[in-house]
Specification:
There is one protein chain. This protein is α/β, with parallel strands linked by helices and about 180 residues long. The chain has one domain: 3-Layer(aba) Sandwich (Rossmann fold), CATH 3.40.50.180. About 30% of the residues lie in helices and about 20% in strands. The chain contains five helices and eight strands. The longest helix has 14 residues. The two termini are about 20 Å apart.
Length: about 180
């Protein structure tokens, strides 16, 4: 499994326990990012509630950076900050996902990712608690596909397997 980077709109007092809870529920190793981590397969990194998280290229891979820059879309961390960094530094090798949530955070960043060749998926209205963020992403053409929450894992795994085989079904081929 490739590295996973995540933003959740949560106060900084909750993100450490949330990362720990996800780690206990997942076969992946999930940690709250501290900044400076080199992204590794099989790992998932959660932005701490006090900082934006960005991915940047470095010798031999990608590294996480944290900043306490001003909130974006009223949030810190903001999904748009992370997604814009993925568009710039990972491009077509990235997969973007946006799930239930209020507001528009993430939509513009996902659009930048899609324009850079990434494949993006969003949660459908019927399975969202709040159909805000995925709706905004869909409305501006930032998504390649929309799926029910329960179908997203299979869609992601299918996409990863297709990329490994060099034959991608639907969307653009990230190898191009």
């Amino acid at each position: 499994m490739p590295p996973i980077v995540m933003v959740q709109h949560m106060p900084e007092t909750f993100t450490p326990s949330f990362a720990k809870r996800l780690d206990g529920l997942s076969r992946l190793n999930v940690i709250e990012a501290q900044g400076g981590e080199r992204l590794k397969p099989g790992m998932a990194y959660l932005a701490p509630g006090h900082s934006h998280m960005r991915v940047r290229k470095s010798a031999g891979g990608c590294v996480l950076e944290l900043s306490q820059d001003e909130p974006v879309n009223r949030h810190r961390p903001a999904a748009d900050v992370l997604f814009h960094s993925l568009a710039e530094h990972v491009g077509r090798r990235a997969i973007g996902m946006i799930l239930t949530g209020m507001g528009k955070d993430g939509a513009q960043g996902l659009l930048a990712m899609r324009q850079a060749g990434a494949w993006n998926i969003g949660q459908d209205q019927a399975s969202c608690v709040v159909y805000g963020m995925p709706r905004e992403a869909a409305a501006i053409g930032a998504l390649d596909t929309v799926a029910r929450l329960g179908d997203i894992p299979d869609a992601l795994l299918g996409r990863l397997l297709a990329c490994d085989r060099g034959s991608v079904t639907g969307g653009r081929d990230p190898a191009r």
